[in-house]
Amino acid sequence: MPEGDTGWKRAFEADIISTVEFNYSGDLLATGDKGGRVVIFQKEQEIVSPLRVAVSSTRHSCGARSQHLPYVAMPQLSNKSRLHSRGEYNVYSTFQSHEPEFDYLKSLEIEEKINKIRWLPQQNAAHFLLSTNDKTIKLWKISERDKRAEGYNLKDEDGRLRDPFRITALRVPILKPMDLMVEASPRRIFANAHTYHINSISVNSDHETYLSADDLRINLWHLEITDRSFNIVDIKPVNMEELTEVITAAEFHPHQCNVFVYSSSKGTIRLCDMRSSALCDRHSKFFEEPEDPSSRSFFSEIISSISDVKFSHSGRYMMTRDYLSVKVWDLNMETRPVETYQVHEYLRSKLCSLYENDCIFDKFECCWSGSDSALMTGSYNNFFRMFDRSMRRDVTLEASRESSKPRAILKPRKVCTGGKRKKDEISVDSLDFNKKILHTAWHPLDNIIAVAATNNLYIFQDKAN
Amino acid sequence: MFARGIKRKCFDGEEDIEGTLAGFKSVPSYNLQRQSLLDMSLVKLQLCHMLVEPNLCRSVLIANTVRQIQEEMTQDGTWQVINAQNTGQASLDRLVSSDILCRSTKEQNEGKLVPSYSGFSKDFENTPSQDIISDLSTVTSVQAPRNPQSNNVWEMENSQENRGNFQKSLDQIFETLENKNPNSVEDLFSDVDNSYYDLDTVLTGMMNNTKMGHCDVLESFSSQTTTNSNSNCKSDINELDHIVEILVES
């Protein structure tokens, strides 16, 4: 491959978004990419008082009621317009969080790709977030500077030191406004605690500790202490030949600081209570849905592997994403989920091809709406799916330049599974499996969503009444 | 595309396979496709070690799939059948394909087609790619199938010149693969051949022995050998096919 081509491809690859996360207020939206960069967007201060639109109140008839298009009970979503004065997101800060490293012991490169970003709750004027690659977690402080001091005694305006013998009078420096500067500085580096690749980080509700999970272990950290962490879960077998299951995701409970869950590649979720023992190898609760024997195949285990687990904001439910579906679990019932939503069931007959091209190993994330009434997850062909739990409705939307002109309303999409393809439908064979939406985020309070499509970020908001 | 090249070889001697497998399984095509899945999985396991760092979750899932297939094949008795297979270029190639991809314990276990999981465990520990290459070069010295009729294929090992030839061919493969960044290696597998959809239908419903039309399935595979023209493949895949052909002594 000629040198030029390789260089261009690498530049393109570095922009692939690998994580998206709103902060607690929703004013800031952070994205991490494959090149180790973090880009933070900030919501513009709104001029008018914000229209707080909850999902339940926008249940008006939107979209044509027809036999072919699904009735969209969801709020209509439109792309953010630059002209509209209703809080749009602009770039706030950009910084290089992680650099590629080389592990000399194993002769392997450590990717700088940002796997996860998690915000800390805001405690003062500065913002803090945790970002992690495969091996190292960093705590970043993002602070604003909009004033600068002028009139120093010991140095000139351009910074040169003044000759002390020339100073004949003393003055008090004055603070003068300057153009807003946003600075990001690494405050803590939590390194060398993970042999395997970190897949999750989660900030505890005590705001003092957080967990980091790799394929086989979960560690508990204190935000102030970087030179040690506590191992709280270890599923590494003594003999690696016996390894059949890995940890795929982990999260702290939103309110109970002693409770966390972790999911596995076998489709199980374990809930652990840190009060029971120091090493939480024994779970307090074990969630697994019995397998349906009629749909068993060689790919059953692979598609049951859970790629993401998220607690609801209420803390009463949790949601898991496996390859073909999203499941909602009641924490009080371990035997089966209370709700199951099919994301792209039409792929079930294509599993062998998807295994061959490795798409079956794609890890899709999922998220709750602020009120827990809706769920969202991604699919292929730049499609993403939203499920309204109360109305039992779902919709497929597309994040692409063509369908997302500013202020345009997103049109529901439909995949044709067989037989005659209707107009506006897409057949399964035409889906582009390189266009995958793995990362989505929902504003914690408003109906604003962020969707990452390869190297593009789309922000959609609920259309105002 | 290891799987593709070998599959072409497989179905050259289709009739032989059917003849020998008949009586063991009512759906011989299922066995062949299960074997293809096994081959594909083994290729994936090996290839993933050539990338930056193996994805442990993916490796574990593929290894579990391999284990599952092997367990089923052992229960069926087809595992023994394949071991006893000594007729037909096609069956030999199938053995060869697994051999290339399995660990060197083959040299010790003559006649046994058992991928060594101790090898996989080593992989899980993130061995550098150089180790894999040297291991594989040792393995390929085992298969020197000049005479496909020979019963003891596994005993024909360590012919000095064969070792040299295969080492060179292997080096060529790895050179081709190493020059690519991870994405293009995955691209090798991203060609979704339409005929694989038939594979899907058979395999995903297969545990309940739902029958596919034999003719349809076999037809799709035999047509693959003729219609799967090089124009569909990238030029580097052609190169890879060429190298695989050298290896399997077409």
Automatic annotation (TrEMBL), chain A:
<keyword id="KW-0677">Repeat</keyword>
<dbReference type="GO" id="GO:0019888">
    <property type="term" value="F:protein phosphatase regulator activity"/>
</dbReference>
<dbReference type="InterPro" id="IPR001680">
    <property type="entry name" value="WD40_rpt"/>
</dbReference>
<protein>
    <recommendedName>
        <fullName>Serine/threonine-protein phosphatase 2A 55 kDa regulatory subunit B</fullName>
    </recommendedName>
</protein>
<dbReference type="InterPro" id="IPR036322">
    <property type="entry name" value="WD40_repeat_dom_sf"/>
</dbReference>
<dbReference type="GO" id="GO:0000159">
    <property type="term" value="C:protein phosphatase type 2A complex"/>
</dbReference>
<dbReference type="InterPro" id="IPR000009">
    <property type="entry name" value="PP2A_PR55"/>
</dbReference>
<dbReference type="InterPro" id="IPR015943">
    <property type="entry name" value="WD40/YVTN_repeat-like_dom_sf"/>
</dbReference>
<comment type="similarity">
    <text>Belongs to the phosphatase 2A regulatory subunit B family.</text>
</comment>
<dbReference type="InterPro" id="IPR018067">
    <property type="entry name" value="PP2A_PR55_CS"/>
</dbReference>
<keyword id="KW-0853">WD repeat</keyword>
TrEMBL record, chain B:
<dbReference type="GO" id="GO:0005634">
    <property type="term" value="C:nucleus"/>
</dbReference>
<dbReference type="Pfam" id="PF06031">
    <property type="entry name" value="SERTA"/>
</dbReference>
<dbReference type="InterPro" id="IPR052262">
    <property type="entry name" value="E2F-SERTA_domain_protein"/>
</dbReference>
<dbReference type="InterPro" id="IPR009263">
    <property type="entry name" value="SERTA_dom"/>
</dbReference>
<feature type="domain" description="SERTA">
    <location>
        <begin position="30"/>
        <end position="77"/>
    </location>
</feature>
<protein>
    <submittedName>
        <fullName>Cell division cycle associated 4</fullName>
    </submittedName>
</protein>
